Amino acid sequence: PFDVLIIGGGPAGAAAAIYTARKGIRTGIAAERFGGQVLDTMAIENFISVPHTEGPKLAAHLEQHVREYEVDIMNLQKAAKLVPSKVPGGLHEVVLENGASLKSRTVILSTGARWRQMNVPGEDQYKNKGVAYCPHCDGPLFKGKRVAVIGGGNSGVEAAIDLAGIVAHVTLIEYDSELRADAVLQRKLATLPNVRIVTSALTTEVHGDGEKVTGLSYKDRNSDAQHDVDLEGVFVQIGLVPNTEWLHGAVALTTRGEIEVDHRGETSQPGVFAAGDVTTVPYKQIVIAMGEGSKAGLSAFDYMIRTEPA
Ligand code: FAD
User: Fold this and answer.
1) ipTM passes above 0.90
2) Is residue 112 within 6 Å of ligand 1 at its C-beta?
3) Choosing a second label site near 40 at 20 to 30 A (CA), which of 46, 117, 165, 304?
4) Ligand 1: distance of its center to the CA of 139 in Å?
5) Please, what are the domains in the chain?
């Protein structure tokens, strides 16, 4: 059995693996896709101390760093089930989709999250070419330009407020007949001169010139009229979905599906830890996922030295 079994090979999982392997304990990492969301990213300009890098490059560095240590890397392996130990100090079991079963004294869950997409023509084609999902990451790339924010919930309205301070103009598009964000955010939004709010609107297409985004179309749900907006960026803010479908019943999740963790990164199951975008820890960012992964790694080690094997 492993001492530490990490599920997920993004920034959080890679950081956890490096921290535990450096303690000399037997570490395994199983990932559906080593690198995680970073593989889908182009420019990264907020990875502190590295002014500019690119997603695939950072993902390659993550793997290279993990490979400096004795870590059993199981790439292209999807976990299907977690069976936590019923006794303190006992072995936890992770069943993979291929039927294999892995046992470990501690487990670190770092399966990340995925942005919900609009699934309209042009969205995929112009991803990273004007279509963005993370205002903290890509906001500054649109300095002085025109953007739309899709979604009028808390994250959409927060994004619109944030972007309004950077870009020339923001069009906020909400499907419902009214915004769903907290009143305090809506009040703040209403004071901004360069934001236009459009409700009862369904985004139907992202337009581009083959290289980058040039606009979008939406349908007015009351009149069915089609409208076009010229702009350079589209921020999609219709939800970040944690990859926890396989964990229902195994550890405590919030109603949104995020894994509940304490300040040490421990879940509701002793010896099972979690880190990164999959948890309740706010602000889904690479540096934060790495810090949380390192913390979960150290917490797993601490658990090991304090808990008698059952
Ligand atoms: P992830 O990166 O999501 O990794 C999850 C890992 O778990 C992957 O290896 C995945 O394959 C694996 N996995 C999932 N389910 C299973 C399963 N059942 N079994 C096994 N493995 C599984 N952040 C920044 O700080 N700066 C940026 O500029 C930036 N730009 C971004 C641009 C885009 C387009 C996107 C999508 C995100 C961006 N982010 C950025 C956010 C950043 O990528 C995430 O916060 C970070 O990757 C989270 O790391 P993580 O390890 O928690 O999860």
Assistant:
1) yes
2) yes
3) 165
4) 19
5) 2-114+240-306 (3.50.50.60), 117-236 (3.50.50.60)
